[in-house]
Design a protein that fits this description.
5 helices; 53% helix; elongated
Length: 98
């Protein structure tokens, strides 16, 4: 079995809604790291067939990726904003000035 670090396990939308925002953001990053298409990989046709049948999401041009990305973006749009590294740094600086 081929193990690819950027493969994402599909999760139903109702289960995604129960996950912590940080976990969802990590999943978003993993989805973004997927290959654009199997056409642009260096895999052999047999390896591609094996990946297509393993139930995980590997490429962005698949319907599974599009659905997973859409579900994730819908859920994240209703969640609180988490500050990124630069924003947290600016907040610390503001508090230090007071």
């Amino acid at each position: 079995m081929i193990r690819r670090k950027n493969a994402v396990q599909p999760i139903p939308k109702n289960e995604l809604e129960e996950l912590h925002t940080g976990t969802l953001l990590t999943r978003l990053q993993h989805l973004r790291e997927c290959e654009e298409s199997f056409e642009f990989t260096d895999l052999l046709p047999e390896e591609i067939d094996e990946l297509r049948s393993d139930g995980r999401i590997h490429v962005k041009d698949s319907e599974e990726w599009k659905e997973a990305y859409s579900d994730l973006k819908d859920i994240l749009s209703s969640r609180e904003h988490l500050l990124n590294k630069q924003e947290r740094k600016e907040e610390r600086r503001k508090r230090a000035r007071i």
